[in-house]
């Protein structure tokens, strides 16, 4: 995170940074990890307030505590919250309501934007409706999750470049997400970049 913030400071606000509370946290260290992320977001190193957070998915015990820790410490500076594992508008609404409730409790007066990860067929089918939600800024194609949801159906080469652009199943999913996002005037991303 510190390296990413330093790079962003050098280059300017030309890219966003998403701090991951889920996949980068060790089991049992989730709250401390979220606290470290919140401290960096609230720090002077965050020059442009273009750092978002990816919380745990709704099935994980830490998803709500992620929000409580992050919003309490850095709610005025979090650029967006990424919601993984949301496969329906009802799940999206649950995340949005939790973000708003925690923000209200913490005295944060702004509405924190939400980005939705599309990582399975349910989310792909619900993508147009989720993109139309007024609190959603971005649909994120979660390539690894989507490939995992296909339970071994895809060749492993389909989840790496250039296969992710050539495989017809992946290309169809990316196209559907892009159409859903653009139809509602929202942004879409084809895959998180892990560097």
Helix percent band: 40-55%
Rough outline: globular
- What's the tally of helices? 8
Radius of gyration: 16 Å
Proportion in β-strands: 5-15%
Order of helical and strand elements: HEHEHEHEHEHHHE
Classification by helices and strands:
alpha/beta
Major pleated sheet? 6 strands, parallel
Residue-averaged pLDDT: 93
Low-confidence stretches: none
Strand order within the widest beta sheet: 1-2-3-4-5-6
Number of strands: 6
Question: What does this molecule look like?
Answer:
The chain is of the alpha/beta class. About 45% of the residues lie in helices and about 15% in strands. The protein contains 8 helices and 6 strands, in the order H-E-H-E-H-E-H-E-H-E-H-H-H-E. It has helices at about 1-10, 30-40, 65-75, 90-105, 120-130, 145-150, 165, 170-185; strands at about 15-20, 50-55, 80-85, 115-120, 135-140, 185-190. A 6-stranded parallel β-sheet has the order 1-2-3-4-5-6. Helix 5 links the parallel strand 4 (about 115-120) and strand 5. Helix 2 (about 30-40) runs parallel beside helix 3. The longest helix is centred in the middle third of the chain and has 17 residues, at about 90-105. The chain is globular, with a radius of gyration of 16 Å. The termini are close together. The mean pLDDT is about 95.
């Amino acid at each position: 995170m510190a390296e990413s913030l330093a790079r962003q400071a050098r280059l300017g606000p030309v890219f966003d940074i998403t701090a991951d509370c889920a996949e980068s946290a060790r089991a049992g260290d989730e709250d401390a990890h979220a606290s470290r992320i919140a401290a960096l977001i609230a720090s002077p190193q965050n020059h442009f307030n273009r750092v978002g957070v990816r919380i745990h998915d709704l099935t994980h015990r830490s998803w709500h505590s992620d929000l409580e820790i992050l919003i309490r410490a850095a709610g005025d500076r979090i650029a967006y919250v990424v919601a993984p594992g949301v496969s329906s508008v009802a799940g999206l609404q649950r995340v949005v309501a939790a973000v708003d409730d925690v923000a209200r409790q913490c005295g944060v007066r702004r509405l924190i934007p939400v980005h939705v990860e599309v990582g399975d067929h349910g989310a792909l089918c619900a993508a147009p409706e989720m993109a139309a939600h007024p609190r959603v800024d971005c649909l994120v194609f979660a390539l690894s999750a989507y490939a995992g949801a296909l339970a071994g159906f895809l060749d492993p080469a389909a989840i790496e470049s250039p296969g992710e652009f050539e495989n017809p199943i992946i290309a169809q999913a990316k196209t559907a997400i892009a159409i859903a996002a653009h139809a509602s005037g929202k942004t879409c991303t084809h895959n998180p970049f892990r560097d």
